[in-house]
Amino acid sequence: MEIKVRNITFSNEKSFVLIGGINVIENYESALFAASHFKEVCSKLKINLVFKASYEKANRSSLKSYTGPGLKEGIKILARIKEELNIPIITDVHLPEEALFASEVCEIIQLPAFLARQTSLIKSMAKTNAIINIKKPQFLSPNQIFYIVEKFRELGKEDLLICERGSLFGYDNLIVDFLGIGVMKEICQNLPVIFDATHSLQFRDANSKTSNGRRSQLFELAKAGISTKIAGLFLESHTNPDEAKCDGPSALPLNLLEEFLIPIKELDDLIKNQRNVLIN
């Protein structure tokens, strides 16, 4: 199955699309700088790009945690970036009343993992013209993603992506079941699958109000995901991850983006050109 946004095709059989950018908008200047760098590198490497940035991160553990500029100001910033750089945009939506407003600027809107079973949110997102990126909840098996997809389809929404972002393994830890990617492809009629390498790295220290991460393992995790023949890679970056206002421990340093993506593209090209061996 193929899902198209502009001239970009999401397909498990074709070259991967990079959903890349920043976790949350800190200010216009830093968001534009990141988007410009992503566009420059992806253009050089001939990788299709959808720029990702959140206007708000509503699922924070503490009231003191940074959540972003909010819906109106954040979407205004994303609209400026979209116009200046002529790139498609993805952002996440947390409340039903936000979906239509966000979709007027963003070609793809994201259903957060913690909210993926919220029927009212699904209904409002299904009414938009945007493509929906469904984050698989950490607490669901790969098979259970079918019922979230089914909700959208019953509402007439077919432009769907599925995003793997790890599964809870005991307390405060995530693992990625790569066999589950094949399960999701099969039960969802080969919908395009995205692998979120960034959030799969999260690791919360006991009694901490913020998520830690395993940035040093980002490259090996991304390679493992790409090797499963998927439609896209989800990647967040920051100019200085140690000073990021949100999820810095899992973010790729922006200056390493090109070095990071070159072997990822090489591996994706190799995987997509290999013949499948079917074993029953």
Helix-strand blueprint:
Elements lengths: L2 E3 L2 E3 L6 E8 L3 H18 L2 E7 L16 H15 L3 E4 L6 H5 L4 E4 L7 H8 L4 E5 L9 H10 L5 E5 L2 E2 L5 E2 L3 H9 L5 E4 L5 E2 L8 E2 L4 H9 L5 E7 L13 E2 L3 H16 L8
Parallel strand pairs: 3-4, 3-14, 4-5, 5-6, 6-7, 7-8, 8-11, 11-14, 14-15
Antiparallel strand pairs: 1-2, 9-10, 12-13
Helix pairs in contact: 1-8, 7-8
Task: Name the features.
single chain, 280 residues, alpha/beta, TIM Barrel, two-stranded antiparallel sheet, globular
> Termini distance?
22 Å
Number of strands: 15
Q: Main sheet: which strands, in order across?
A: 3-4-5-6-7-8-11-14
Ranges where pLDDT stays below 50 over 5 or more residues in a row are none
Overall geometric form: globular
Topology as a string of helices (H) and strands (E): EEEHEHEHEHEHEEEHEEEHEEH
Written account of the structure:
The radius of gyration is 17 Å and the shape is globular. It is α/β, with parallel strands linked by helices. The longest helix is centred in the N-terminal third of the chain and has 18 residues, at 28-45. The chain has a single domain (3-272), classed as Aldolase class I (TIM Barrel, Alpha-Beta Barrel). It has helices at residues 28-45, 71-85, 99-103, 119-126, 145-154, 179-187, 218-226, 257-272; strands at 3-5, 8-10, 17-24, 48-54, 89-92, 108-111, 131-135, 160-164, 167-168, 174-175, 193-196, 202-203, 212-213, 232-238, 252-253.
